[in-house]
Design brief:
Distance between the termini: 19 Å
Helix content: 55-70%
Largest sheet: none
Structural class: mainly alpha
């Protein structure tokens, strides 16, 4: 949905910032997002590595296709 896409677009820069601090594993990024209390695209409080992968894949896929 458009709302989920918008959330992903808002979350991706946060993931990039976390990566810049040296946290690059999906598990590490998920843990950091959960600790920062950033809700998932669907509004859930807890992040899982696969959710992080979906956000990254969607955004990086759009960059390639843009």
């Amino acid at each position: 949905s458009a709302k989920a896409k918008e959330r992903i677009e808002n979350i991706y820069p946060i993931i990039e910032r976390i990566k810049s601090y040296g946290i690059t594993s999906l598990r590490g990024i998920a843990k950091e997002l959960t600790e920062r209390k950033i809700p998932t695209a669907s509004g859930r409080p807890n992040w899982h590595p696969q959710m992080v992968k979906v956000v990254i894949d969607r955004m990086e896929g759009e960059k390639v296709n843009a």
